[in-house]
Amino acid sequence: MPSRPTSTLSISGLIMTRLCAAFLFIVLLFPAFAAAGPGGTALPNVEELWRVLTLRDYNTRVVVAGTTFLGIASGLVGSFLLLRKRSLLSDAISHATLPGICIAFIALQIITGNGKSLPGLLAGAALTGTLGMATVLAISRYSRLKDDAALGIVLSVFFGAGVCLMTIAGRVEGGNAAGLQSFIYGKTASMLLWDAQLITITAFCAAVVSVVLFKEFTIVCFDTDFANVQGWPAGILDFLMMSLVVVVTVIGLQAVGLILVVAMLIIPPAAARFWTYNLRIMLILAAAIGGISGFIGSALSALMGSLPAGAIIVLVTAAFFGLSMIFGSSRGLVTQWLRHVRLTHRVGRQHVLRAIYEVAEELNSDDPRSTVPIAELAGKRSWSARRLRARLRRAAREDLVQFETETSVSLTERGLVHARRVIRNHRLWEMYLITHADIAPSHVDRDADMIEHVLDAPMIEKLEGLLLYGSEEPAYVPQSPH
Amino acid sequence: MLDWWQTYDTWIVVTGALAAMSCALPGTYLVLRRMSMMGDAISHAVLPGIVIAFLMTKSLDSLPMFLGAIVIGILTALLTQMIRRFGGLDEGASMGVVFTSLFAVGLILIRVAADHVDLDPSCVLYGAIELVPLDVVTAGEGNLEIPRAVLYNGGMLLVNLLFVGLLWKELKISAFDPDLATSQGFSADMMHYALMALVAATTVTAFHAVGSILVIAMLIVPPAAAYLLTDRLGRMVGLSLVIAGSSSFLGHWWAVEGPSWFGFERMETSTSGMIAVATGFLFLTAWMFSPRHGLISRWISSFSLSLRIMRDDVLGTLYRITETGSTASRPVSRAQLRETLPGGPVFGTALWQLRVGGRIDCRDGGFVLTPRGEKSARKLIRSHRLWEGWMVEKMGLRPDHVHSTAERLEHITTLEMRTELERQAGEPEHDPHDRQIPREDE
Amino acid sequence: MVLAEDKLSNARRHRPEYGSDHPPEVPLSIHDMTVAYHRRPVLWDVDLDFPEGQLVSIVGPNGAGKSTLLKAAIGLVPMASGRVTVYGRPFAKQRRLVGYVPQRESVDWDFPVSALDVVLMGRYRRVGWFLPPGRVHRDAALEALNKVGMKDYASRQISQLSGGQQQRVFLARALAQESKIYLMDEPFAGVDAATEKAIVALLHELREKGCTVVVVHHDLQTVKQYFDHVVLLNMRVVATGPTEAVFTEENLKKTYGGRLTLLSEAAHAIATDKHP
């Protein structure tokens, strides 16, 4: 199968590919540049690299373990979010956690005198996160506004309230609210063993729930009404699913910060989709991409101490996304492009062969291999002279067509066999459509699939019987039904 | 109440109002095109643009920064579009991929640059509107000191007004029906990217007053509130400007006085945050109280409709019970009514209204129709039975299939309709169930 | 229609470079069109010439590619191969001459505009960039609304209109465009009897003006009654020609295949037509 690019590939596709490549390039190489830059630390040596990757340091071990598990859990939960087409709900939820954190801090500070209890803060975060999620759903359900506006409203208003409360928290007597800022950008390095354990346990629970309820979540994502009719408590399942999003968001706050935790939920599943159409595999891949990104990202940031870990982790996932989008085996750009090129060539070749055969038949019905002037072919289809010539030359290279003179061609022996098969296939399909149009013909790629592969022998015999009016070339080229 | 107010505060409010109003203009079209989150995406994504321009020029208000933001804004829109089209992801997810990645790049740039310049990420995220009056330009001979931010945001507002004013119909058509816009020669794609560029430019102008996240509140919330209040595009734009302006005032007022209402004495909080809260408050008000699309008015109208139907049903039931039995004018107990009618607050309220309106009387622990009530009841029963007769006669429906339809139609049948029904059905005396059709004027 | 004639003589002077065998008089000509979604062909080698000044219906089963044909013709859906000419010139240069009435669901009916605003959108190309539409255009839009019997609803917000009224607003918008060729995607779908009548009257008026109207139609019963010319489509063109000649039981069988319910509907349509 020839696969040289031709002009048939749309220009926007090319620009697109290049832009994506550029995006990928920036995203992939950026951390390296940043590290080598004047502000960053020097590039680490091999020994240091080895130490980090094998998790020799206690601190690194804690951080890396925490972010890896976070990545796995967010990959799993995010997949459902993506299928539900609600990816950006995570954005609204994560911004809505800020007021909760601040309220919890102020309350704890006033009551216990120490506002910096992580479970307390996270509980506050979960509370307003859930409230934010419920508000989004309420606005899009009980007003004429659509999802997008509901998300924007909740996100910005809750965050605004959070900013106000944070200012107050900073001025509460005896309080030191400096740590609250770290929830916005994330501060992985300051993670304690206890934090990592919390993340790990919660992530594990979230992962277990999404695996156990895989079937139920899938049906709710795919068709909520159907799930309801089938007797599944779709509302509760939906709420549970969104609660898992809140949970993952909340535990991700400390690791990557509330703005970037969104990326952990959206990007790994989006990347996984380019590799598979199978939901199970997609979930596994998303978890793997999330986990590996968490691992690599936090290890990298441990190597380059001054860089924010959250941002590095996100860029690693973005790099995975870029790679998947370009090389993904099921809907990656390269795959799509190759498919497109192959289709164009195949269709082009078949059209050329059919045109030559038909013109030859018209000119000289005894010999389908007789010489045909190129000018005659042009009228058969909407070819420009240049396009036609290019197609003919390609067919000649494939030994289907030979140039008799500059301006005329004929079929080769091989070309004749090919042409007959194409025409027979085409006409049989046409006959089939006419007689059996009810059997979902749109699911068949007629040009690609030889009719024998789809229909059984008796059916083909029947069709041939309908087509052949005592032709001298049995089973080769039936007359067109038109 | 506002005795602490000074010129300083006026400038803060003016800056906030100008920023919010200039955001509300492009925001209107974001809401209408259902791409509000594009505002979120762009305002996050401009971070690297701002940082790069800042590193190059060492200043926060420069032309390169402005241009950088516009480029990044268009790039965000372009990448989102492409991931969506070629990757087959939904719009939200593709936006999420693009803006989080760009934001991460921005954060790293800030950290890398931290040694050279003093750029506080929190300043970029939620601004410093309190400091706005300190950076002034002196204009004119009267030594009028105008804050720089007022000039910038005012200028942006003018640009946006000009944009929206000049391209009014082009923006309208490309938001409503992009295919038609394109076929009319106003490329919908071009309008889309122009709008995105404008959003980015507005965002970056407003961001040092209010920060890049709270800008979203100004972009989305006032137009969303206005959308609930009106059905006209012109009014929607006007209202969102008003809401944007007043949220700035409310925001500053609450920022200064608000904390003390909750027991945090002598404390001020962030004005920009409060402006976002104020837009949220105004949105909530619109959502609840909007005359046509508000929750409360919708709830009231649906409640009053069910009340009316319940009143009719009570009258009808009383009439039927009185009509069938030999129990004429014997009071019908509440329990008897509840056999055919659903209970609940609607039922109670309907009974109360009927009594107050003098249509039924309370006697011996039961209810009877007053003459006035009987007149209304007769009209209803008449409508019901005429409809039944008409449906059986004219539409060929089976007599046992027409009751529920007639039940719905009886509530909306006017005198003219009854007369017409009677005429078409040949002035029947009895309905298909052989019950008498009461006369109107008895 | 002075402008249209202008274009026409232009078209005669500049013959298309690819040696078209179609005379420029053909208002809309589709040649060799193949459209594929992903790998699956939806339309297959479609060749069609639409006759001038006639009402043409496109008929075929669900999924036969009827709507796709219209959308591909005006470039809303990319073609895998083929070309479309309008009065002998490529469609891109003749956009002005083609008015398209999309399916009703294709726009957001909550949009804050009035019926008149929507109809005015049909005039925007004439108004041009930046300028607001003037008196003349408002009058033309009102006139178009009047023709579809919607003048009283001019200032209504579009979400407050019934489905049939919305469809009529769309038709008025197409009228206001003053095109030579109209492509309408299922205008009769889900409309009330009054609207159906209004649409038919409008179609006749357009024909009187010499316009060519192509309608995607799903009701076999009314094809003979409403249309002069019919295209039977099921991924490829099964038959095309004057309704009397083409709308036959045999051709319908070819189009609908063994879809029994539809086939009996078609047979019924023909039977009732033969013996009224």
Overview of the molecule:
The complex is a heterotrimer of chains A (482), B (442) and C (276). Chain A has 482 residues and is an all-alpha fold. Chain A has two domains: 43-331, Orthogonal Bundle (ABC transporter involved in vitamin B12 uptake, BtuC); 336-467, Winged helix-like DNA-binding domain superfamily/Winged helix DNA-binding domain (Arc Repressor Mutant, subunit A), CATH 1.10.10.10. Chain A has helices at residues 11-36, 46-53, 58-83, 89-112, 118-142, 147-171, 182-185, 193-212, 214-222, 224-229, 234-256, 261-272, 279-303, 309-327, 333-363, 374-378, 385-397, 413-436, 451-454, 457-467, and strands at residues 372-373, 401-405, 408-411. In chain A, helix 1 (11-36) runs antiparallel to helix 14 and helix 4 (89-112) packs parallel to helix 6. The two termini of chain A are 32 Å apart. With 442 residues, chain B is mainly alpha-helical. Chain B has helices at 7-32, 36-57, 63-87, 91-113, 121-126, 148-166, 168-176, 178-183, 188-229, 233-261, 271-289, 295-324, 334-340, 345-356, 371-395, 403-409, 415-424; strands at residues 136-139, 144-147, 332-333, 360-363, 366-369. A three-stranded antiparallel β-sheet of chain B has the order 3-5-4. In chain B, strands 1-2 form a two-stranded antiparallel sheet. Chain C has 276 residues and is of the alpha/beta class. Chain C has a single domain (2-274), classed as Rossmann fold. In chain C, strand 4 (81-86) and strand 5 (89-90) form a beta hairpin. Chain C is globular.
